[in-house]
């Protein structure tokens, strides 16, 4: 897509030593992610999709191959605040208000007080939570909490947003709504997004690129460049194009499971 | 109302059992007194009765039951005797009087609070060390556990003697025994609390490049607050026990422990029981105060609803 990839993996390996011998969480993963792309990682449990995301975030150390983020090592990229990370659970601190939670990374990174305030307000608006800053997490629904957690990841304005099944614990209706919101947010901010999911429709609906993975060893079995337009209403999911991509993803997942 | 009834029922049952127990417990002395006063009792003669079972004596002398609740030095004082003594030694005596329970209670309370303060601070500091340093955990935790396996009654006199030899008397040695008992629950609770953040929360901190001191102040410390309060409640009750135990070996003449001791020297069972109840009431009050602080703090943090 673009000349210099934001995230680039070449022959990436990650092996965990366990009592039953080494486990190949990732084996020979090659992937380039360009600026502004929305990349979904889909596959069954143990396929290494979360592990790969954690490698990008320098939460795991690859045991082989190369991985660069913004042309740097993942560790340096983290120090340069290259990414915001959204975990499956919102993980808001119950003793902080929503604004207090969003302010948390800004406090840690040493932003000035008035700058903190400005940014909190901006991202609250971005995730459609303006006016909820003074509430405590338990006063918000699960979907709103997860939006607050996305706001928190956006607050320090990293170019990359890494999301590990952020909507996995939410019900279908809330999930649809948040998917739509996320696309709008992506269009507005132009961030590069890495998105781990279990859901085929979610992956197809959101992504410009779908990475299908399979387990034992964790590897990429298919990379699908989505032909869908950037502007995607929810009912695009009934279009034949959409269904064709979903079918290809399903085929890819099935191929990875051929030995079952 | 649904709560008041069961609570009253339990209290009534305990009081009932207590009164019933008073009859056989005090029947021997009651009969001796009654015989001396010229009342007919069966069988006659204290010597004969000495070999008789208390229950059978009580059943054969139902007419003296009332007297078993009114002995001057009963084996088991009746509840109203204890209440009367408590009332007399708290409300009716000047607080500076040597016979006032408030006076003795304050002596013990001051040692309790000082010891609790020392123990809590020491416990928190130890827990912080243990959470941050594996070496500290390996070197300190076994000693902390070992310290609690030694009976406090065995080690208290030695603490008193050792501290006395360097010129420390009175409040400080008692406070140190209090601290000895109260630091442990605080260490255990705080270690658990400081480790309560999940792996995800710690990963999140790493994604923001938070240092370990930032993680401590922003995440670990607030997360440990509920655990801390649970520990403090145990700690303050243990502190009170420590202060009282600290008063026993010195033959102290002041403090609730001293009341227990002098009571037992002179067979003043009513005094012993009233001191015991004063202790229990004091402990309950201290725990209640901490519970109030807990609710207040958690509410301010936004955690309590």
Fill in the CATH topology of the largest domain in chain A. Answer: Rossmann fold
> What does the overall shape of chain A look like?
globular
Low-confidence runs of chain B:
none
- The amount of beta strand of chain A, in percent, is 15-25%
**Strand coverage percent of chain B:** under 5%
Quick one: CATH class of the largest domain in chain A? Alpha Beta
* SSE string of chain A, helices as H and strands as E: EEEHEHEHHHEHEHEEH
SS content category of chain B: mainly alpha
The helix fraction of chain A, in percent, is 25-40%
Strand element count of chain A: 9
What report would you give on this structure?
The complex is a heterodimer of chains A (260) and B (305). Chain A is α/β, with parallel strands linked by helices. Chain A has two domains: 7-82 and 158-256, P-loop containing nucleotide triphosphate hydrolases (Rossmann fold, 3-Layer(aba) Sandwich); 90-157, no CATH class. Helices cover 37% and strands 25% of the residues of chain A. Chain A has helices spanning 49-56, 74-79, 98-109, 113-126, 142-154, 172-189, 200-206, 240-256; strands at residues 7-18, 21-33, 38-42, 64-69, 83-86, 160-164, 192-197, 209-214, 219-225. Chain A has a six-stranded mixed sheet with strand order 5-6-7-3-8-9, sandwiched between helices. In chain A, strands 2-1-4 form a three-stranded antiparallel sheet, with helices on one face. In chain A, strand 6 (160-164), helix 6 and strand 7 (192-197) form a beta-alpha-beta unit. The longest helix of chain A is centred in the C-terminal third of the chain and has 18 residues, at 172-189. Chain A is globular and about 50 Å long.
């Amino acid at each position: 897509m673009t000349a210099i990839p934001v995230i680039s993996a070449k022959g990436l390996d990650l092996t965990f030593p366990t009592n039953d011998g080494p486990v190949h969480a990732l084996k020979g993963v090659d992937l380039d992610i360009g600026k502004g792309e929305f990349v979904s990682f889909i596959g069954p449990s143990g396929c290494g999709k979360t592990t790969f995301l954690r490698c990008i975030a320098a939460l795991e150390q690859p045991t082989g191959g190369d991985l660069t983020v913004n042309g740097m090592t993942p560790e340096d990229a983290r120090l340069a605040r290259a990414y915001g990370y959204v975990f499956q659970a919102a993980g808001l601190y119950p003793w902080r208000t929503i604004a207090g939670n969003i302010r948390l990374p800004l406090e840690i990174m040493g932003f000035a007080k008035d700058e903190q305030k400005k940014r909190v307000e901006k991202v609250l608006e971005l995730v459609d939570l303006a006016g909820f800053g003074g509430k405590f997490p338990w006063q918000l629904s699960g979907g709103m909490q997860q939006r607050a957690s996305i706001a928190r990841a956006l607050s320090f304005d990293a170019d990359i947003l890494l999301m590990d099944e952020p909507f996995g614990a939410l019900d279908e209706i809330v999930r649809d709504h948040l998917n739509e919101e996320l696309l709008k947010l992506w269009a507005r901010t132009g961030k590069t997004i890495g998105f781990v999911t279990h859901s085929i429709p979610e992956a197809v609906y959101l992504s410009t690129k779908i990475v299908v993975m399979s387990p034992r060893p964790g590897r990429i079995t298919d990379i699908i460049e989505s032909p869908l337009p950037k502007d995607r209403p929810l009912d695009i999911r009934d279009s034949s194009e959409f269904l064709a991509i979903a079918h290809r993803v399903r085929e890819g997942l099935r191929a990875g499971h051929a030995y079952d | 109302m649904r709560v008041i009834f069961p609570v009253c029922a339990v209290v009534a049952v305990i009081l009932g059992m207590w009164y019933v127990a008073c009859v056989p417990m005090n029947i021997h002395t009651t009969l001796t007194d009654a015989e001396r006063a010229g009342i007919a009792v069966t069988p006659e003669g204290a010597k004969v009765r000495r070999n008789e079972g208390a229950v059978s004596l009580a059943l054969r002398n139902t007419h003296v039951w009332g007297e078993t609740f009114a002995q001057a030095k009963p084996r088991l004082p009746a509840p109203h005797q204890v209440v009367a003594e408590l009332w007399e030694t708290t409300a009716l005596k000047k607080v500076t009087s040597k016979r006032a329970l408030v006076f003795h209670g304050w002596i013990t309370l001051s040692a309790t609070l000082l010891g609790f303060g020392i123990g809590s601070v020491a416990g928190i500091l130890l827990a912080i060390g243990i959470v941050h340093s594996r070496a500290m955990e390996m070197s300190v935790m076994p000693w902390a556990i070992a310290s609690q396996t030694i009976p406090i009654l065995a080690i208290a006199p030695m603490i008193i003697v050792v501290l006395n030899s360097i010129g420390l008397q009175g409040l400080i040695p008692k406070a140190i025994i209090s601290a000895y008992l109260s630091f442990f629950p605080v260490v255990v609770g705080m270690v658990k609390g400081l480790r309560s953040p999940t792996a995800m929360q710690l990963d999140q901190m790493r994604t923001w490049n938070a240092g370990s001191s930032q993680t401590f102040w922003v995440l670990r410390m607030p997360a440990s607050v509920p655990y801390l309060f649970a520990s403090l409640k145990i700690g303050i009750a243990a502190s009170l026990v420590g202060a009282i135990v600290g008063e026993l070996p010195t033959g102290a003449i002041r403090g609730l422990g001293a009341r227990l001791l002098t009571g037992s020297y002179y067979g003043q069972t009513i005094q012993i029981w009233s001191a015991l109840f004063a202790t229990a009431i004091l402990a309950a009050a201290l725990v209640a105060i901490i519970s109030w602080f807990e609710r207040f703090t958690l509410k301010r943090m936004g955690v309590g609803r």
